[in-house]
Amino acid sequence: MKLVFLSDFHLGFSQPEREGEAFENAMSAMRAAVRERPDAIVFTGDFFHDKVPSQETLLEAFKILAVPLAEKSKAVVIEKETKEGRIAVECQGIPVIAIHGTHEHREKDYTNALQLMESAGFVVYVHAEQACLERHREKIVFHGMGGVPELKARDALKLWNPMPEPEAFNILLLHQSFKEFLPVDDDMVATLSISDLPKGFDLVVDGHLHWSSEVQEKGVHLIMPGSTVVTQMKNLESKKKKGFFVLETKGKKLHFVEIGGQRQFFYKKIELNMTNAEEAREAAKDAINSLLGGQRFEKMPLVKLKVAGTLAKGFSSSDLDFRMVEMQFLGSAIVSIDHSFKEESFGKKIKELGLLQQQKKSIGEMGLEILEKNLKETEFGAAFDVRRIFDLLEKGENDKAMEIIVSSAQEKPKPKT
Ligand SMILES: [Mn+2]
After folding, report:
1. Between β-strands 129-135 and 138-144, what pairing exists: parallel, antiparallel or unpaired?
2. Are 231 and 103 contacting, i.e. CB atoms less than 8 angstroms apart?
3. d(CA 325, CA 333)
4. Which end of the chain has fewer CB atoms surrounding its CB within 10 Å, N or C?
5. pLDDT computed for residue 226 by the predictor
């Protein structure tokens, strides 16, 4: 059989200048998916961006799901194995099998948006359940678990404990983070590792992470279709194009299809040292200009700039305002700038004070240092022995001190020019 794997449409996601983007990309992905003439389309969560989608968003969802539904093909029966028993669902067009994502996750007492889509006949929804599709003398079993809060993911998977069925092509559908895929400096959390995945599945398909990927390790073949729209603006999203996977179960042939008309996304991190607000803004502007490089874009590109480093003395992060830079690119790019500067920490200041305390300089010593420093800036320079003069002054022998100063000035006239 032929299957298409799609994920993370995030319908309802909106940003200034990008109002229709989630919908346009999802529609173009769905149309391209249908053109593949698959036996089923599989969706791994975050169809919607909000837990409770607006009616405007529901309208978009209906238009998108009407595309596979309207396809002329023989009705197909999907056997759904639920907690209440086996249910036969007759599907028109190309069936869509779906799990919910973290964005649609709601506690048991509430109906989630995918259950709503199922009741309208648009999708076959599974959560800690199975759906079985038999066609062309082939049997595919989809084992799906919708997105649960990351901290509960490992336990939830263990509790559900899905088992591959014999003599079938078994696909596990999830919507979670995996430790192996998170960049080290990412703020997302994960409790699941690839080694936690149950064995014996022909394929594992995971939503949630928005960049597409494929891995085969530890006896697991895992694919992530990624999102069809940039929402999180992660570095990896700028490296991979948006699209979907197509699988031919016979011979297990898999390939990725990019969707057309995508908005370009650039991501860059710059480091600045001992910088002030003005320099930081200039550097940010230069970095963005070099990313865009005077290219022409079909759609205004998206730029995410991260500025990090240290600030010059006397500046704090609150002095930094990059909105001016973002505004300068209005009409040519959609720019978003984040900054995280290391300020001189309280700890460091305490340490410095401690060091001064250790040195325990006498008032006399400090006075001498000040006199030496000030003299260096006068035309006297090193014309006389400062320590000797200081001692005389300290003891009140002002006349003698003056005598030495005057005579040394006459002996060695070397004024600074
Ligand atoms: Mn998502």
Report:
1. antiparallel
2. no
3. 11
4. C
5. 97
| pTM score | 0.79
Question: What angle (nearest 5°) sits at the alpha carbon of residue 216, between those of residues 215 and 221?
Answer: 90
Distance CA 181, CA 213 (A): 9
What class has domain 2-258?
A: alpha beta
Q: How far away, in angstroms, is 46 Cα from ligand 1 center?
A: 5
Q: Ligand 1 centroid to 144 CA: how many Å?
A: 16
- 348 CA to middle of ligand 1, Å? 41
Q: Dump pLDDT digits (tens) for 381-393.
A: 667 777 788 888 8
Q: Is the dihedral of CA 157, 158, 160, 165 positive or negative?
A: positive
In this structure, which amino acid lies at residue 338? D
Between CA 315 and CA 95 the distance in angstroms is 59
Separation of CA 104 and ligand 1 centre (Å): 10
Ligand 1 center–CA 32 separation, angstroms: 20
pLDDT of residue 417: 45
Ligand 1 midpoint to CA 195 (Å):
23
Instruction: Taking residues 67-95, report their average pLDDT.
Output: 92
Residue 12 CA to ligand 1 centre (angstroms): 12
Q: How far is the CA of 9 from the centre of ligand 1 (A)?
A: 8
| 258 conformational bin, left if phi > 0, alpha if psi -120 to 50, beta if neither | beta
Residue 212 Cα to ligand 1 middle (Å): 12
Distance of CA 138 to the CA centre of its chain: 39
Question: What is the pLDDT, as a whole number, of residue 385?
Answer: 78
The ranges assigned to domains in the chain are: 2-258, 265-342, 361-411
pLDDT at 416: 45
Q: Is 261's pLDDT higher than 80? A: yes
Backbone φ and ψ for 101, nearest 5 degrees, come out as -105, -175
Distance 135 CA to ligand 1 centre (A): 31
Average pLDDT score over residue span 155-176: 97
> 285: CA distance to ligand 1 center in Å?
30
Structure tokens at 192: 């699941």
Cα of 207 vs centre of ligand 1, distance in Å, is 7
Q: How far is the CA of 349 from the centre of ligand 1 (A)?
A: 43
User: Residue 333: is its pLDDT beyond 60?
Assistant: yes
